[in-house]
Write a structure and sequence with these properties.
The chain has 255 residues and is an alpha+beta fold. 43% of the residues lie in helices and 26% in strands. It has helices at 11-40, 46-54, 77-83, 86-106, 132-156, 191-201, 212-218, and strands spanning 63-74, 110-115, 118-123, 164-179, 184-189, 208-211, 222-224, 230-232, 241-249, 252-253. Helix 5 packs across helix 7 (212-218).
Length: 255
C-alpha cells in the first residue's frame, strides 16, 4: 500500500461514505416516524399523540377539566349481528364507523374508544376548548344527517337500515392517560362520564338528547323539538335529569 492510503480508501472517500450513512439513517428515522404516526393515528387523535410525544415519560398527567362527552349507539345491533353473516355485519359496521369518525374528527372531537358499535367521544380534551359543547352538538347533528347516506349505501349493498341514538352531557371530569407501561389509553373518568352514557340510553334511533348543562354551554344555535324536553331518572344518578331533544344546530337540521 503506497502514499499512506487507508485500506478503506481515502479520507475523502470515507467522509462521503459517512455522509451517505447519515443520510440513510435520517431517512430511516423519518420513515419510521411516519409509520409510527400512521399507526398511532389509528388509536388516538393527533392532539393526544402530540402530547404523548412531548412528554418525557410518555404519559399525559391527570387533571380535572370541564368537557363535553358524547355517546352514540346503534339500535337493535345485537339482533343484526345475530341475523347477518359475520363478514357482512363487520363490513356494515366499519362503513358506518368510518363515516362517523370523519365527522367527529372534523368537529374537533376525540374518540376515546369503540365499545362494539358504540362510539365514546370527548370534546374539550386533551386540549381545552371553550366551544366544546357547541362543537359536540354540531357533530351529533352532522352524524345523524349522515345516517341517510349510510343507509343508502346499506340498501345498495343489500344490508338492512340502521339507526343511531346519541346522548351528550357537559361537566367536570378527570382526563388523562391510564394503564401501564405495556398498555395505556387516554380516558375520561367520573360521574359526568357515566351520566352521558345514561342519557344516550334514553335516546331513540335517530334522536339526539342533551342535558341542561350542554344546552346552556352550547349557546343559542341549538334547535330543540317543541315539547321534546323531559325529566328522566338515570340509573345510579341521584334525582331526575332534564334532557332535551335536539333537531338542529345553526344551519343544520335533521330531516
Amino acid at each position: 500500500m503506497s502514499d499512506g492510503a487507508s485500506p478503506h480508501g481515502s479520507l475523502q472517500d470515507q467522509v462521503v461514505e459517512l455522509q451517505r450513512e447519515v443520510e440513510r439513517l435520517r431517512h430511516l428515522l423519518a420513515d419510521n416516524e411516519a409509520e409510527y404516526r400512521l399507526t398511532m393515528g389509528r388509536y388516538v387523535t393527533p392532539e393526544v399523540m402530540h402530547q404523548l410525544a412531548a412528554s418525557s415519560n410518555a404519559t399525559i398527567d391527570g387533571e380535572r377539566r370541564e368537557v363535553t362527552m358524547m355517546f352514540t349507539d346503534l339500535r337493535c345491533s345485537t339482533e343484526l349481528s345475530e341475523a347477518m353473516e359475520p363478514e357482512a355485519y363487520i363490513r356494515l359496521l366499519n362503513h358506518y364507523l368510518e363515516n362517523m369518525i370523519l365527522i367527529v374528527d372534523s368537529w374537533q372531537g376525540n374518540i376515546l374508544e369503540f365499545a362494539g358499535d358504540a362510539i365514546v367521544c370527548v370534546f374539550g380534551a386533551p386540549h381545552e376548548n371553550p366551544d366544546a359543547a357547541r362543537l359536540a352538538v354540531y357533530s351529533a347533528v352532522a352524524m345523524q344527517r349522515q345516517m341517510t347516506r349510510v343507509n343508502e349505501w346499506n340498501q345498495a349493498e343489500g344490508y338492512p337500515s340502521i339507526q343511531m341514538g346519541v346522548g351528550i352531557h357537559t361537566g367536570e371530569a378527570i382526563v388523562g392517560c391510564i394503564g401501564s407501561s405495556v398498555r395505556m389509553k387516554y380516558d375520561v373518568i367520573g360521574r359526568n362520564m357515566n351520566l352521558a352514557s345514561r342519557v344516550e340510553g334514553f335516546s331513540a334511533g335517530g334522536q339526539i338528547l342533551i342535558t341542561d348543562e350542554t344546552l346552556a354551554a352550547a349557546g343559542d344555535e341549538v334547535i330543540l323539538r317543541e315539547g321534546g324536553s323531559k325529566l328522566v331518572r338515570p340509573k345510579g344518578v341521584r334525582g331526575y335529569v332534564r334532557v332535551h331533544d335536539v333537531v338542529g344546530m345553526g344551519g343544520l337540521r335533521l330531516a
